[in-house]
Design a protein that fits this description.
Strand content: 15-25%
Distance between the termini: 51 Å
Shape: elongated
Number of helices: 8
Helix content: 40-55%
Strand order of the largest sheet: 1-8-3-6
Order of helices and strands: HEEEEEEHEEHHHHHEEH
Amino acid sequence: MGKCEQCIVRQLNSLKTLTKDELGRLSTCKADRVIKKGEHIFEEGEHLNGVYCVKSGVCKLVKLSPNGKDQIVKLNTNGDLLGQRSTLSNEPANLSAIAITDMEVCFIPQTEILKAVGDNPSFTVDMFKTLGKSIRESDDLLVNMSQKSMRERLAATLIMLEESFGKEKDGTLSLVLTREEFAGIVGTATESVIRLLSQFNKEKLIHIEGRHISIVDIEKLRRISDGV
């Protein structure tokens, strides 16, 4: 079991504000878990009783819409904390977290998070800054879904994938999503995403090789995303 004070990813989240003694206490009570691709870390409606810290891998936060389709609200990766809102408010999770790749996560019990909130003002401030950022991102998502066309949303998604997750040596996007996952982010039917990706390919904005996509003209995609 790795020690929290020696973990690099904690520098990417609120845990960086904890003291050496506080990190040592976390190390004795946290639980390391391996999550396989496609598995749930937690489900909507579940009482989490703690926070998950992503050590490696990528997951999607998903809201099940009334029509039964998954709406992907956010993608999370190394250093991200999952379940903060539910843990602090003691309410059930309002989203599901599902692994897109194989993952390693650490589970930190709610009692330890609440003790840190009570003992360490810097930790508390940083946690609420993170929650504020999440709320802003949710607001941005709502605006994009209501004001942007499918074409604009797909262009924005492709740009986000390259900027957030990088690309391989051959130029393909490092994070490989299924067409259903693209549809879940864009908020449309899978068939519509397949048709739009094919159109982008014909316009030489991207290059498609099976499930692998490389961006050919990111500036043109930016203009499309901005509605220009």
